Amino acid sequence: MDFATVNAVPKPKHSRRVPKRVDRGKFTSKTIKEILERDNYQCVRCGSYYLESVPHHVKFKSQGGTGHKRNGVSICISCHREAHIKKEVREWFEQWVENNLDENGDRKYEKLDF
Prior knowledge:
Helix content: 25-40%
Distance between the termini: 80 Å
Number of helices: 3
Strand order of the largest sheet: 1-2
Radius of gyration: 20 Å
Largest sheet: 2 strands, antiparallel
Strand content: under 5%
Shape: elongated
Number of strands: 2
Oligomer: single chain
Structural class: mainly alpha
């Protein structure tokens, strides 16, 4: 077989139906913006404004967590560190999601200003 006569097939122009494995569970830039706006650009645990650049996955990607809005929370650097080290902090975030977010990841109860 002579490689000079082989005709290469061009790469298809359509997008992927299923994301690459490395991209599964990641938050899109749109989802990140929605999560930050929903949480008023504050850590949901301590109220700090010094946030991580990417929201915290409440259910870790390694455990099948998705990149949907309901699985993400705004989190500061120190709370994020604790969430990955301490089981009780991880459980606190899981409980916070259950108590405060609806099925779409929006707040169940909007804060009222008096």
